[in-house]
Amino acid sequence: MVSQINGLSRHFTEDTLRAYLLTRATRTDNGCLIVRGYGGRRGVYQKLAGRAWAHVAAYVVFVGGYDPALEVHHDCGAPDCIEPTHLRQLSHADNCRERTQRPQCRNGHDREIDPSTGRFRRVCRTCNREAQQRWRERQAAEVAEARAAYGRMPS
After folding, report:
1. DSSP assignment of 39-86, as one string?
2. Contact 24/37 with Cβ under 8 angstroms?
3. CB burial class (10 A; 0-12, 13-18, 19+) of residue 134?
4. What's the rounded Cα separation, in Å, for the pair 130 and 57?
5. pLDDT of 48-87, one tens digit each?
6. What is the distance between the alpha carbons of residues 111 and 121, in angstroms, rounded to a whole number?
7. Which of the residues 9, 41, 55, 147 could staple to 45 if both were Cys, CB 3.0 to 4.6 A apart?
8. Are 39 and 45 in contact, with CB atoms under 8 Å apart?
């Protein structure tokens, strides 16, 4: 069964893969089991156990009955969740139909509706504002550090 997972390292058995996934995962308040894979970004950039998608590997070892022709869908909407009760297999067309825009961003802020399209904005303005503020603070710290290295006092 593990051999059906595309991109999975060959040294994994079902038991070792199950243990590997559980050691790299943390439980959140909403019941999701979020896995930490390779790369710094959450979501679709999270692969682990070779080049396999974590949620596909979790479906195989925790749920079973994996069909490679179908896609694994997250009922919770978190792309890096491996909680077995949140995963199910659907056809590509059904998976696209199930996808909806969530009313909150991943950090829990309410999304605004874009007046030109009538849909939720893709980027959360609150998260964007906070990220810009963190960037400005980092830049100011770098400038202050560079001025101190040259012996100039901040103005």
Report:
1. SSS-STT-EETBTEEHHHHHIIIII----TTSEEEESS--TTB--GGG
2. yes
3. exposed
4. 35
5. 655 677 888 888 888 888 888 888 888 887 778 889 998 9
6. 6
7. 41
8. yes
